[in-house]
Design goal:
Keywords: Decarboxylase, Lyase, Metal-binding, Zinc. It holds the Pfam family Amidohydro_2. Pathway: Secondary metabolite metabolism; quinolate metabolism. The chain has 334 residues and is of the alpha/beta class. The protein has a single domain, classed as Metal-dependent hydrolases (TIM Barrel, Alpha-Beta Barrel). It is built from 12 helices and 11 strands. It has an 8-stranded parallel beta sheet with strand order 1-5-6-7-8-9-10-11. A 3-stranded antiparallel beta sheet has the order 2-3-4, with no helix packed on it. Helix 4 links the parallel strand 6 and strand 7. The longest helix has 21 residues. The chain is globular and about 55 Å long.
Length: 334
């Protein structure tokens, strides 16, 4: 029986505390209700994003899932809440609030939701402490992380202890773009979402490879949002750079060798792109993901896979659900 699992969905507590008041900081995201079924996420007194009750109400989500034929959602925080910029102990509180909420949501609806947590990556020791709680106390299935930490790429030496523990504990990681490169050049047309995020994701993936993180920790399980952004397309160019600049090499093999271990969600909107991903990485590396409940999401989830005529039914079944459960170290029967 086919099981459809939406790997990429976001959630936020309806009663998120106002940490901007508590810690006297402008950058904390604050949820400001606008009506019974909507709110604005405010940052520094400005509207960062308009949201509906889909983003906090499990009943609303389940109703949408039934209508769109999704069996399970993997729920994760909204990246604006990562708060890597804050003092680590304060960011740990933000992480704990969200992780507790996600774990509670999963406990209330275990047949509908699986949870990913968040950790304060600006301090590896504290991040590992909260990851330990997420995985070994709360029962979450993985950790969502951002593509950079205060402008430092994911191969920054400060993150090595974190990745080492992820490999040791077999913690799946979902890498989501945030604080994108070139933001100052993208104020118009929402280019930060359509160009900045794919470029930021490519930079994160390339950094993990070229910085030697994937060579050092070959059993890391990492999935990139939005189909890996522009990374799959520029991978041959990364290989060429590795080939012609041997003095810069930090790895034994070219980038494409390590890229084979990556996973990607399916959110690239075009069956041609899905086929390219399958040809380059394999159908077992693609997880259906919609970015529910935001405007750029795919409706219905998995449509791009359903419409990829060159895929076999077995490949589609894997991409629509089986791969996500396997990535999260689960069997289809939970």
């Amino acid at each position: 029986m086919e099981m459809r699992v939406d790997f990429h969905t976001h959630i936020i507590p309806e009663d998120l505390p106002n940490l901007a008041e508590k810690f006297q900081g402008e950058r904390w995201p604050v949820l400001q209700r606008t009506c019974a079924c909507g709110a604005n996420i405010m940052v520094a007194g400005k509207v960062f994003r308009e949201v509906t009750d889909q983003v906090w109400d499990p009943a609303k989500r389940i109703s949408d899932m039934e209508r769109e034929k999704v069996d399970m959602q993997v729920i994760s925080p909204i990246p604006v809440t990562f708060s890597y910029w804050a003092p680590a102990e304060e960011a740990e509180l933000m992480a704990r609030i969200q992780n507790d909420f996600i774990a509670d949501t999963v406990r209330q609806h275990p047949e509908r939701f699986l949870g990913l947590g968040t950790v304060p990556l600006q301090n590896a020791e504290i991040a590992i402490r909260e990851m330990d709680r997420c995985m070994h106390e709360l029962g979450l299935k993985g950790i969502e992380i951002g593509t950079n930490v205060n402008g430092n790429n994911l191969d920054d030496p400060s993150l090595i202890p974190f990745f080492e523990m992820c490999e040791k504990w077999e913690v799946p990681l979902f890498v989501h773009p945030w604080e994108t490169l070139g933001r100052e050049r993208m104020p118009r047309h929402n280019l930060m979402y359509t160009v900045g995020m794919p470029s930021e994701t490519a930079l994160a993936a390339a950094s993990l490879i070229l910085g030697g993180v994937m060579e050092k920790f070959p059993r890391l399980k990492i999935c990139f949002a939005h189909g890996g952004g522009s990374f799959p397309y520029i991978l041959p160019r990364l290989d060429q750079g590795w080939k012609v600049w041997p003095h810069l090499r930090l790895t034994e093999q070219p980038p494409s060798h390590y890229a084979k271990s990556f996973y990607f969600d399916s959110l690239n909107y075009d069956p041609l792109n899905i086929q390219y991903m399958v040809d380059r990485f394999g159908a077992d590396r693609i997880l259906m993901g919609s970015d529910y409940p935001f405007l750029l999401r795919e409706i219905p989830p998995g449509e791009v896979i359903d419409n990829a005529l060159s895929l076999t039914e077995e490949q589609k079944r894997a991409m629509l659900g089986e791969n996500a459960l396997r990535f999260l170290n689960m069997s289809e029967g939970r």
